[in-house]
Amino acid sequence: MSFEDINALLRQTMPKKKVQFDNKQACAWMIAIPMRAEFTQPMFHFGERVKWLITPNASRFWLSGRVMGLWFSQGSESWEYLIKLDPTQSLSGIELDETAIVEEIDLKLVNDSHAIRNSLVPVSDWQTTDLAAQSLGLSPDQLRNLRLRDFFKEGYHVRDTSVPNSRRPYWQWHIQRCEETLEASKKSRLQTKRSPKAL
User: Fold this and answer.
1) Which fold has domain 123-194?
2) Angle at alpha carbon of residue 99, lines to 93 and 103, rounded to 5°
3) φ and ψ at residue 7, rounded to 5 degrees
4) Is the whole model's pTM more than 0.85, yes or no?
5) Region 79-89: what's the mean pLDDT?
């Protein structure tokens, strides 16, 4: 996306104000919301790294970058993000722009030291299923299935924090322990693939 495209987008989303962004060397944040109260809070914040899947020519590739702008689309009733792609990425035969516009539903958070949410709220070692799934890059269902298959051990990786005699468990997950177990499993699978099969 060029700076001219950004200017055009700004004029579309904020037509009553004169908007011009003409310093091509400057870095700018952008946010636009509709002139009404009914919209959901964005899931991602400025400067956070995100990734999304693209499927050119029936291949699957993950792209990543940092959020530099967001606006609430009244047409789709969801947030869209202007993302500056990480400079080290390249796909053979495919030319990548410096920026991309991606819908919120397609994005996943990439945890790193620049994530704003890490400095705003102290992160507990134990997180609820939805937050843990997001932190680990899994879906809540995948997380539950791993617990049911005893991949994650109750009392160490996961604990039930529901009140006594409650009919429904309220699971919390220890993020660091889960990450370590997932990483160890990944290394083990890679090692198994590389080792020659016994005759």
Assistant:
1) Multidrug-efflux Transporter Regulator; Chain: A; Domain 2 (1.10.1660)
2) 100
3) -60, -45
4) no
5) 85
